[in-house]
């Protein structure tokens, strides 16, 4: 198998994908703009060959890299980065070189939030009311239907960039000044708890493993209010969420890929679908899954590609949470106190990459417990400020 990976050095924990593929006998071919000398020894050892481009946004350079690999190694069997940012680029290269996976003709289904809503509705899955708006008249018509507050965000975008919650006429006026004639997706604001349904499918679209995470807040709220984030892998997936998640896998035709779906659970118990992501969840979520089960999901992905199944047994089943902290806040416990007080629960800690600061914080702690109530007390203590 010839597997081309884009940007194999980032994010750092995803380097394990390429290492496990190499260990399984897959020929891993890397493309990035990072000098070879700056790649980690682990990546250098995992790659059969590396092609450096000057600009990862220059598709002609990426096409030249792929053609070079084809000339040397034969047809490309898979091409991935596992990164939301490169989904459209990957689709272009798959279309150009006839590589299995999402192509240009279908990428809008998984990038456009408006299109996601259409597919959700067709599948009978509840979604927040929303439509694309452009200019003041469109905005006012939609707000007249649903009332304040509303959320506005780019129809195609990553994370919480250019996303606002509008709660008043003042907020609307401020948004319109910044938006100009740019089109945005405007949605009714949903009050509820945020969950995800995450997993991996085989070539037939069957879910070979799945998880659910609970999030303390949505990304928009964390960024706009400068909050600390935590998210927790649950021991059991809520049955209603699993049924909805399985349905989303089918209606979006997700095969041989990771997925990350987001849902709000409203106070009345109703689940409302948000976004579809056909990639692994970001941050340290993959590592949380591994810590929760004591297995290696990076290795499981390689096994799925080669055998269409994942056979690793789970050696445990516990709650695991990522707890992020930001610089400049007056926390009750300093770093040394956390290490000392929670040595039994703390299984990993690291500084986060700068690009993740607004959401994940500057330092991330991973804590684990068999009891959710106990783990929540640990999280609260780490986040407590003076």
Short description:
The chain has 386 residues and is an alpha+beta fold. It has 15 helices and 16 strands.
How does this structure look, described?
The chain contains 15 helices and 16 strands. The strands form three sheets. The protein has an eight-stranded antiparallel beta sheet with strand order 13-12-9-10-11-14-16-15, sandwiched between helices. Strands 3-2-1-4 form a four-stranded parallel beta sheet, with helices on both faces. With 386 residues, the chain is an alpha+beta fold. It is globular. The chain is 36% helix and 24% strand. The protein folds into three domains: 2-105, Rossmann fold, CATH 3.40.50; 129-188, Dna Ligase, domain 1 (2-Layer Sandwich); 193-383, D-amino Acid Aminotransferase, Chain A, domain 1 (2-Layer Sandwich).
Task: Look at the structure and give the mean pLDDT.
Answer: 95
Largest sheet: 8 strands, antiparallel
- How many angstroms separate the termini? 55 Å
- CATH classification class of the largest domain: Alpha Beta
Q: What is the CATH architecture assignment of the largest domain?
A: 2-Layer Sandwich
Question: Low-confidence stretches at least 5 residues in length (pLDDT < 50)?
Answer: none
Which secondary-structure class do the elements indicate? alpha+beta
From the 3D structure, determine the CATH topology of the largest domain.
D-amino Acid Aminotransferase, Chain A, domain 1
Summed up, the domain count is 3
User: What Rg, in angstroms, do the CA atoms define?
Assistant: 21 Å
Helicity, as a percent range = 25-40%
Q: Could you say which overall geometry the principal axes of the C-alpha atoms support? A: globular
Going across the biggest sheet, name each strand in turn.
13-12-9-10-11-14-16-15
Give the total of beta strands. 16
Oligomer: single chain
Beta fraction: 15-25%
Number of helical segments? 15
CATH superfamily of the largest domain: ATP-grasp fold, B domain
